[in-house]
Write a structure and sequence with these properties.
Blueprint: E1 7-11, H1 16-27, E2 31-36, H2 39-48, E3 53-57, H3 63-72, E4 78-81, H4 96-123, E5 128-133, H5 146-166, E6 171-178, H6 184-189, H7 193-200, H8 211-222, E7 233-236
Helix pairs in contact: 1-8, 3-4, 4-5
Amino acid sequence: MNLGGKNILVTGGGAGIGRGVVTSLSSHGANVYVISRSQANLDTLLTECSHNVVTKSLDITQYEAVRDYILSLPPLDGLVNNAATAVIRPFLEITTSDFDAQMDVNVKGNYFVAQAAAQNMVNNKKAGSIVHVSSQASQAALQDHSLYGMSKAALDNLAKNMALELGSHGIRVNCVNPTVVMTDMGRVGWSDPAKAGPMLSKIPLGRFAEIEEVVGPILFLLSDSSSMVNGTTLPIDGGFLAM
């Protein structure tokens, strides 16, 4: 894809999907700016791809510090808004602290990261692409996912509103909506057949996603190959949402 030389910001880039995006972008010749709250993950990331990757240890709930950092970056061509947390508990057990912890990252944090990245693009008169990493849980009810699903549904709607307001600047905004992804944490969390079986039974392809199967669509949306794709939600779920 035509990503060589492009400046791309990736949040939550130290592990999982975000790390896969960073290493793939690096291999395509992009200049990648990575935010993660784990310095240890960033240190190991730099052993894999150091020549065109710049890292910064920040929690995206450090809203002002994150904004200042993003506005200080070179003109951005893209953002992968990937940092997230998951509060998975029954609806009747959710507390106000659970609510705040979920929304502070998945909604407020992602909102202001996206705002700062878009401002960087507008300030530098750069067309660009923003990709929010949402979830199938934004579009379907899942057991114990009321809070997480609501936070991801906010990202879906944010993408549509951003697409409307930023299109005149040449900035496209889309979401990807994966099913369970076999990250290190995913393999631990979904290794029990009793838990995985009911979910797998609703996926026509009969399996969960691998990291690279999410990375590919993200890179497509970042690239000029998707130059007319704007304001969409793209399921990466093996057909789960088609059932």
